[in-house]
Design a protein that fits this description.
globular; 5 strands
């Protein structure tokens, strides 16, 4: 695992834990799953977090059949779908957005 991947996973674990309050984690959370084309999906429930109600405009990065990322927010969640080697990139899009919102630059 490269340093960026470890770093974003550490960050995501901290983000998740910071929202666990005895209630939030029972109904909300982070889901990472696979696609059959192949690829990954990410869904982060934003309800009950400072990101609730914030819009992440649809972003599409298409480099090749196996190198792509799409990210957007809808129905109270951040969503991403990506190619088989783009999971770190998808998680970094979420992290960058969350940190920009926290700092007031988004």
């Amino acid at each position: 695992m490269n340093d960026e991947a470890e770093h974003v996973l550490d960050w995501l674990q901290g983000w998740y834990l910071s929202h666990c309050d005895g209630r939030w984690e029972h109904e909300r959370g982070v889901q990472i799953d696979t696609l059959d084309n192949p690829g990954w999906t990410v869904s982060v429930d934003l309800r009950g977090t400072p990101l609730e109600g914030r819009a992440y405009p649809r972003r599409e990065i298409d480099r090749s059949d196996d190198d792509w990322v799409e990210a957007w927010s809808a129905r109270g969640a951040f969503h991403a779908a990506c190619g088989p080697r783009n999971l770190t990139e998808a998680l970094m899009l979420f992290r960058t957005w969350a940190e920009e919102c926290a700092s007031g630059t988004a």
